[in-house]
């Protein structure tokens, strides 16, 4: 009587025994998938992570970055579709003007909505810097758009008692109040500028030009507050300068968006953004190096 050979037993278990070799094959397959996922999670270099998420790579709890898509381009689209036309309005190109009043809907539903949504999603992923930046500018676009909407009637509070509501826009109180908004947005951009030195050159240029734009707009509206008629020419030049700085910011932002989208679809080539995360070492990295 012959006994079943080992190869025959192996084949039998592989075909019909769920607790035999077939189970091990499935286990090996799952192990391969896990190894692939692990490799995929570390394949992104710190430079690429910073380029896609606009924040230095840090360990966070959970694994949401592999579960959800990158929300950064969503916020960038909202930022650019709102800022680019506004910068052209401020410079008065092709007769545009009015502080971007014709684009108030885009400020609210493109700039405000997309940036705030992107900021919340960055928060979910644990990207604090990008979350703060996007939510901040989302709130700014919501607020600026509301200021321009007739239904909010913001200038009426400053209008003379015997004059139309629109007359309030020419008063000292209205223009000085608006100037203070731009002033402290410029201060906030300075803080973001310092923090962006840990990200990339493109982000630095964005905050630098945006900071200059807000400070120039502050000067322009302060000039209008001082003498609306007498300083109209001076204020106009400052506002045009603010629009030009905002336009530089917008063009830099379009470059950054293009660079991100090329990486998102794994295009054969990419655009450099001038990574700075490896040049300016973080405090935790310095402490780890000492230890």
From TrEMBL:
Membrane topology, as annotated: Multi-pass membrane protein
Organism: Bionectria ochroleuca (Gliocladium roseum)
GO molecular function, one term: acetate transmembrane transporter activity
Pfam families cross-referenced by the UniProt entry: Gpr1_Fun34_YaaH
Entry keywords, A to Z: Membrane, Transmembrane, Transmembrane helix
Transmembrane segments annotated in the record for this chain: 74-94, 106-125, 132-152, 172-194, 201-223, 235-257
Family: Belongs to the acetate uptake transporter (AceTr) (TC 2.A.96) family.
Protein name: GPR1/FUN34/YaaH-class plasma membrane protein
Listed Polar residues bias regions: 1-18
Lineage of origin: Eukaryota, Fungi, Dikarya, Ascomycota, Pezizomycotina
InterPro entries noted in UniProt: AceTr (IPR051633), Gpr1/Fun34/SatP-like (IPR000791)
Residue numbers spanned by region Disordered: 1-25
Subcellular location: Membrane
């Amino acid at each position: 009587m012959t006994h079943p050979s080992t190869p025959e037993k192996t084949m039998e278990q592989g075909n019909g025994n769920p607790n035999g070799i077939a189970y091990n094959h499935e286990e090996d397959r799952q192990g391969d998938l896990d190894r692939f996922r692990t490799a995929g999670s570390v394949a992104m270099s710190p430079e690429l992570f910073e380029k896609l998420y606009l924040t230095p790579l840090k360990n966070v709890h959970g694994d949401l970055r592999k579960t959800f898509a990158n929300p950064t381009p969503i916020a960038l689209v909202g930022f650019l579709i709102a800022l680019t036309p506004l910068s052209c309005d401020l410079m008065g190109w092709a007769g545009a003007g009015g502080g971007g009043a014709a684009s108030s809907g885009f400020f609210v539903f493109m700039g405000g909505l997309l940036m705030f949504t992107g900021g919340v999603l960055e928060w979910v992923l644990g990207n604090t810097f990008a979350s703060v930046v996007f939510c901040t500018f989302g709130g700014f676009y919501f607020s600026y758009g509301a200021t321009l909407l007739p239904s909010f009637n913001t200038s009426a509070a400053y209008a003379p008692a015997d004059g139309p509501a629109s007359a309030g826009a020419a008063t000292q109180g209205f223009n000085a109040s608006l100037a203070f908004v731009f002033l402290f947005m410029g201060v906030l951009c300075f803080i973001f500028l310092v923090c962006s030195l840990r990200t990339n050159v493109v982000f630095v240029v964005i905050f630098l030009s945006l900071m200059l734009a807000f400070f120039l707009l502050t000067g322009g509206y302060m000039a209008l507050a001082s003498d609306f008629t007498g300083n109209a020419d001076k204020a106009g030049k400052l506002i045009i300068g603010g629009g030009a700085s905002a336009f530089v910011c917008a063009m830099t932002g379009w470059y950054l968006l293009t660079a991100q989208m090329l990486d998102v679809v794994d295009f054969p080539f990419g655009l450099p953004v001038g990574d700075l995360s490896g040049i300016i070492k973080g405090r935790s990295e310095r402490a780890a190096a000492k230890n």
